[in-house]
């Protein structure tokens, strides 16, 4: 039996009353890829932060290569040979690749010798691991996939033997993700140990040798990947049987509700984000917009939701919508029966410091139903909140709790309840299940499909292809502000969509 | 999960901050060779030991309630209105014009007109920084500070060149006519048999200030406008999502804030001085910031904090009068209170949060 590269023994960590990690033990053999999967809030990130020295465990031991090691800070983690690739890259955008790699690991006051040394070493590393990036390009000139490779090179340059990747594919196209997994394979072949943190079952199945499942701060199982199935892992994550596929009958599209023609959006910096798109959403159908984040989907939703001006023509039920100036704000959109589940519930959809019942009025606070004389009718609002909490199974069922004190899934349920219960003609949905646990995903998906079945039009934007596939009746792919093509979910696959998402045009839409 | 109970946040933290400030002040007083115990004694008897003392304490408190509310409303929209001083000066100008140039049959009507005028002038003075913030992104802190200086200069010009009575050497307006004299607490309380000091300046605008506390409370927590102001204050992108116009809220919140600061003039100009003089605001606009911070931007908190600062002002004045503790040191003590209750809030908050988390863990 070889000595494990990493061994955690009985790690516990509490934040106040919340037990983020409870008596966690894992052991990862050198030269393997170990996956850690769990819902948001299961404690994966806390565990890795302990390993990387951001948090100190309340109890437990860390053993690296058979030696007990204490990791009080990230410097110690680096010294112990641990490298971390964060979900959000920590790169200086206007530095070159080479400068970013050297940053924090300079040899002395003068930069020249460090850079020259790094350039030489970088070349060796690149060849050894087939990790190619141009060292003289600025970070903001290279793509997201390349930026991630820089992060990996940074860790390797610091002599990391153990690499931790936190949700590495969140910002990548499927093709880029595949490339990342090839790199990880190569690293494994060279003897590096890799810990892959993700909530995507597919990645675990594809890339890892062994996998640990976390639920509510506890390690519920560690299994060999080859001996398990996605279904089993999902059950271990949630603690009960889950439907991975949404049950729905075929759509029966009616008349066009939303007609977009030649829509262009120019952002505050003068950059054209949406470059003339045409799209129609009919009554009783869900149109999904697939695409890597940052290709104009957010701006499309924001124009429709009245959050930013646009150019071109949008009709709702045949009547033109104002795209700028008065009558184009969120209040006007709501009056026209457009409801909007925004992409970022914490910054947009909810006021985190407001009580749940105050949030139930958010955006609809001028509704006469919530009005009594010159005041707001808080009693009516609270009664309405009680109803919504019950119907949408928000937990805990406490309308006085501040939004920030609900879990991600329950926060989203509050937003979804508020918007769907308005019975809108058009529902805009952005990333409905980002940071939401599997149990709540199932529930939210069902609600969206139920609204469709009532003959409402739904426009869905999601970076999760799985979600696009399971919900959409029609899929449009956006890349660089254009719609690259429309497909029916039953007539396409992830590979084709992946190509469209990467800007490789298929046959004419 | 809340980090600590609400009562600890609103009661315990200000109290501990206050104690720390008092302790440090005691050390300073010791250092210059005076007795802190005696000093505290003197402050308490001077500010609260007689109706005369109370009359001054409440007079100052009235000023601070208005400016504290002004800052608090702006805080709710996440704006830092440092211009209370200038807005209150302009409010004074409005009051002076109303009182001097219109013959009023009775003080009550004059008071209503003075309220309207002071609010209008204060709001107008806040409107320009508000517009610049909303439309041009000029930071409200910078512009309101500058507007304080402009207000002082403008008032100087008005008093010296326009409103000064012929032949007077004093840069001040003429005394207001007897008809607009506001009843003092002495006059108000005498009919019900309470003998309140005749010399103290506290007057009926104290009731206006308390009424303003109620109105602000209802506005912020019970109306749609208040809802929008708070929502905008918590999250601008959230406000845009909900169709709340940031431009509109910025301007409206600042107008309300300016109006409240302007309203202070009913107390210091109409109620006390009964004429407009230079520097009539005496820094109350700035004290309002500390009052709003300490009062957690809640009208009731502002009410309590205003009385505390009224006490510090009056007690401090007594201290300067009866001991060799110099006037400047009183300012130091006030500054310490502001520092601890406002700026150093987190210094007390963080250990306390840890303590409560620890306690809760122990219970489980």
TrEMBL record, chain A:
Pfam families according to UniProt: ABC_tran
Superkingdom as given in the UniProt entry: Bacteria
Assigned keywords, A-Z: ATP-binding, Nucleotide-binding
Gene3D superfamilies given in the database record: P-loop containing nucleotide triphosphate hydrolases
Boundaries of every ABC transporter domain copy: 6-241, 258-505
PROSITE patterns found in the cross-reference section: ABC_TRANSPORTER_1, ABC_TRANSPORTER_2
Family matches, as PANTHER family: CARBOHYDRATE TRANSPORT ATP-BINDING PROTEIN MG119-RELATED, GUANOSINE IMPORT ATP-BINDING PROTEIN NUPO
Protein name per its UniProtKB record: ABC transporter ATP-binding protein
Source organism: Ruegeria haliotis
From TrEMBL, chain B:
Keyword list, A-Z: Cell membrane, Membrane, Transmembrane, Transmembrane helix
Keyword Transmembrane helix set for record: yes
Membrane-related topology note: Multi-pass membrane protein
Compartment(s): Cell membrane
Transmembrane segments: 57-75, 87-104, 110-128, 140-160, 199-220, 240-264, 302-323, 329-348
Signal peptide: none
Identification of the protein by name: ABC transporter permease
Organism whose genome encodes this protein: Ruegeria haliotis
